[in-house]
Design brief:
The chain is of the alpha/beta class. It has two domains: 170 residues, D-Maltodextrin-Binding Protein, domain 2; 207 residues, D-Maltodextrin-Binding Protein, domain 2 (3-Layer(aba) Sandwich). Helix content is 45%, strand content 14%. The chain has 19 helices and 14 strands. The strands form three sheets. Strands 7, 8, 9, 10, 11, 12 and 14 form a seven-stranded mixed beta sheet that branches. A five-stranded mixed beta sheet has the order 2-1-3-13-6. Strands 4-5 form a two-stranded antiparallel ribbon. A hairpin with a 2-residue loop joins strand 4 and strand 5. Helix 18 packs antiparallel against helix 19.
Length: 449
């Protein structure tokens, strides 16, 4: 134990030393610009968007502020280590899948006083559900940047050969099953989809279910709607659907790789894959549609946003940068270059620039025509304008939920267990662990008081 503590202390000391040249202490001053830092993840060539476009323009508009840029690999661990060492970047790009846990641990600065202040932003210009994912304890902890969606990819050539109409928003669960059966020919599988609680989540919403009760600390997965969703998910395990538990069982290849080679007619995955599929298979004729509906239309989303570190010594300057990175023009430019996730603002989503995807020369292809935009991206505004997506599953205790939900899904798919029975058992486990977590947190708070 002593050795582990010593190694941990040494790691933090090394990390602090490595930042000496990167982040000297910022002292209170009356003249000269202040320096703040920001961090991102992603492909290294994406850095140009920040270093050559965003930061120079921000510094031009704010001559009293300088921005030091960091691109981190192993992003989550690097940010957490920097917080542990007291040297966190001032503005941090985060994703709601993990940021709510960081907020709960006190890593992010509450922003309501800035968002709602004289130098604030118009909340109404953002897709409403995104604010829900940033709220905790009555405050808001980020500025939305984008939103991604799960959709139905389809191979137009295979549909044409089968004499079938392309998927659209009118498709139902029954249509999906029927099409998968008709499109399964020879070595081609009608529908491919990853296995587990992750891909199961949109079916819960389509069945009219939800993951959390209103209290946010007990799960609602024992409802009849969730059981119905799991029964339908189980029904997809047949010869015309490849519901694969692990990509390692197929040589490390996911559904998108088989889709690119014409071995899969349809698959379910995220909007972020569209540019990479076009690049990898430039001759592939494909489109996307909203996920088929059950009792209602729905998919699931995630989102990236800009948070301000609770350790920042320049909160006003950090807020200005977070606000700038979430402005309409910045979001348009982000989408036009990368087009992996739609912009978080209605003003960007409804703009003409949204339809003019340029890509990044040599890195990401653009969109060549309005017809191509309609087939690959036209479904996105349709889903968002109609409110057909949810991030309700995001919660400080989502990790507890997903652990036992995955177990329940496995039991139904592998052991033919009754969905209602295993979901009720999973609820008991989830609620018990969350109650224990809350009790431990309260005890720790009392001990630290």
């Amino acid at each position: 134990m002593i050795r582990l503590i010593t190694l941990g202390a040494l790691l933090l000391l090394i990390l602090r030393m490595s930042y000496v040249t990167l982040r000297p202490p910022v002292e209170a001053r009356t003249t000269g610009p202040v320096t703040i830092e920001m961090s991102v993840w992603g492909m290294p060539w994406e850095n140009d968007l920040y270093t050559k476009l965003y930061i120079p323009e921000f510094e031009r508009q704010n001559p009293d502020i300088r921005v030091r840029f960091h691109h981190f690999e192993d992003y989550g661990n690097r940010v957490l280590l920097s917080h542990a060492g007291g040297i966190a970047p001032d503005v941090i790009r985060e994703n709601i899948d993990f940021s709510i846990g960081w907020t709960k641990r006190g890593l992010n600065l509450p922003l309501n006083r800035y968002i709602n202040g004289s130098d604030g932003i118009d909340r109404k210009d953002f897709i409403p559900i995104l604010w829900k994912g940033l709220e905790y304890g009555g405050d808001t902890y980020g500025v939305p940047q984008d939103i991604n969606l799960l959709g139905l990819f389809y191979n137009k050539e295979l549909f044409d050969k089968a004499g079938m109409a392309y998927p659209d928003a009118s498709w139902t669960w029954k249509d999906l099953q029927s099409a998968a059966k008709k499109l399964t020919q020879g070595q081609t599988v009608g529908l491919d989809m990853g296995w587990g609680g992750g891909t199961f989540r949109p079916f819960v919403y389509q069945a009219g279910g939800r993951f959390w009760n209103e209290d946010g600390v007990t799960t609602a997965i024992d409802s009849p709607e969730v059981a119905e969703a799991l029964r339908y998910y189980k029904s997809l395990m047949r010869g015309d659907v490849a519901l694969t538990r692990s990509n390692s069982l197929r040589g490390g290849l996911g559904p998108d790789k088989f889709f690119q080679t014409g071995r899969v007619a349809m698959f379910v995955d995220g909007s972020w894959l569209v540019p990479s599929i076009k690049k990898a298979a430039p001759d592939l004729r494909f489109g996307l549609a909203p996920l088929p509906r059950g009792a209602q239309a729905s998919t699931i989303s995630s989102s990236c946003h800009w948070s301000v570190s609770s350790q920042t010594r320049h909160p006003e300057a950090a807020w200005k940068l977070a606000k700038f990175l979430g402005n309409t023009e910045a979001l348009k430019e982000y989408w036009q270059m990368l087009w992996v996730a739609p912009p978080a603002r209605w003003s960007a989503l409804r703009s003409e620039e949204f339809k003019n995807v340029k890509g990044a020369p040599g890195k990401i292809p653009g969109i060549d025509s309005q017809a191509e935009f309609a087939e690959k991206c036209g479904w996105i505004p349709q889903v968002l304008e109609n409110g057909w997506t949810s991030i309700e599953f995001c919660n400080p205790y989502t990790n507890r939920l997903m652990l036992h939900l995955n177990e329940a899904v496995d039991k139904v798919l592998l052991e033919n267990a009754d969905p209602a029975t295993v979901l009720k058992a999973a609820k008991v486990k989830v609620d018990k662990q969350i109650a224990e977590d809350i009790a431990s947190e309260k005890a720790a708070n009392r001990g630290g008081a």
